[in-house]
Amino acid sequence: MQERTRAILHIDLDAFYASVEQRDHPEYQGRPVIVGGSPDRRGVVATASYEARQFGVHSAMPSRTAQRLCPSAIFLPARFELYRAVSQQIMASFRLHTSLVEPLSLDEAYLDVTTTVRDLEEAVQLAREIKRQIREQTELTASAGVSYCKFLAKIASDRNKPDGLTVITPQEAPAFLETLPIEKYFGVGRVTAARLRTLGIQTGADLKRLGEERLRDLLGKHGTQLYRYACGEDNRPVEPVRVRKSVSKEVTLEHDIRDQGEMEHILEKLATQVERRLVELDLAGKTLTLKVRWSNFDLVTRTISRTQGFQQTEEMLPILHSQLSRLVDGKQAVRLLGVIVSGLFSQEEMRRERQVVTPSLWPGEP
Ligand code: DCP
Ligand code: MG
């Protein structure tokens, strides 16, 4: 039996945190709003409204730089509980259309609507309907991508932000993928892209021309996958329930490094990204792991656990630094650094449990 062509949507809210703030403070609408850390305290930008982006402000930029680029910007601290509540609201409304909803972050999800619609045209109508619902329920705008696989749906949603709706049909896909720069391909980070570019490979057409075997020789398993994507093949299913076991970030360095200060700086960046995801998910983890891959490919990990768990960068950094200094001897160079937090537990649960075991805190209650 021939399998039906799938219909996949990728929905991503526009300037999510900033849009929630503009919604709740009408006086900020149409003005540059930056949500994140304060410029006076070495904070970073979580996100910026589209008005602020015109000045070159973007996520993960130091807030001080953002202030210099856009002096009229309104800086606001993040209100995660609120963003989580809005997220639950939109994810619930997605689930009315299909049970196959895979959230990627608070404001982003894949939906497999193959059995909800008859064809891609109807999938576009459904995407329009979902955008309308989001606006009605939350007063926020989203961008949607529609295609037959995850990879193309995600790229499509990014095409016409904000408030966009883009479809890439199976007929359009080959031409589209050929002109797509390699950086846009799923799984191609800075290092892989730089490597490919030195070989003169810039686009999907170049990937295809290079061929599956050469790509596999160059990048291993990942090369095969990349070749498939360039050919428009991506069979990854939309996976609604993913039991998350850990939150991690790692980076393969452009050049192997020996300098410990440089490594510490990279660990700080990684820990900040791990913290961000943990805060978004309202999770902490009992176990913290430092991952180091030496230039000769040997992998070492160092792990530490504590009952109160880890969530904030400041909690992780001293431990990561001391573990690092015990490993680094100045002779061996490092090619990869990673930070992993596992043994996850919900902060919400912790708070609730504490309230149950200490009823005396609530004298008014029966
Ligand atoms: N976020 C963050 N730090 C980052 C990137 C994102 O804290 N480095 C947070 C703030 C964003 C939210 O995650 O509002 C969603 O991330 P997106 O990448 O979807 O960015 P936005 O929704 O803000 O903008 P858009 O999707 O319109 O590009
Ligand atoms: Mg978004």
Structure description:
- With 366 residues, the chain is an alpha+beta fold.
- Helices cover 41% and strands 23% of the residues.
- It has 14 helices and twelve strands.
- It has helices at 16-24, 50-53, 63-69, 80-94, 120-138, 150-157, 173-179, 190-198, 204-210, 212-219, 221-230, 260-281, 313-327, 347-357; strands at 8-13, 33-36, 45-48, 74-76, 101-105, 108-112, 142-147, 165-167, 246-257, 283-294, 299-310, 334-346.
- The strands form three sheets. It has a five-stranded mixed β-sheet with strand order 5-6-1-7-8. It has a four-stranded antiparallel β-sheet with strand order 9-12-10-11.
- Strand 10 and strand 11 (299-310) form a beta hairpin.
- Helix 4 runs antiparallel to helix 5, helix 10 runs antiparallel to helix 11 and helix 12 (260-281) packs antiparallel against helix 13.
- The longest helix has 22 residues, at 260-281.
- The termini are far apart.
- 32% of the residues are buried.
- The site of magnesium ion has 5 residues, from strand 1.
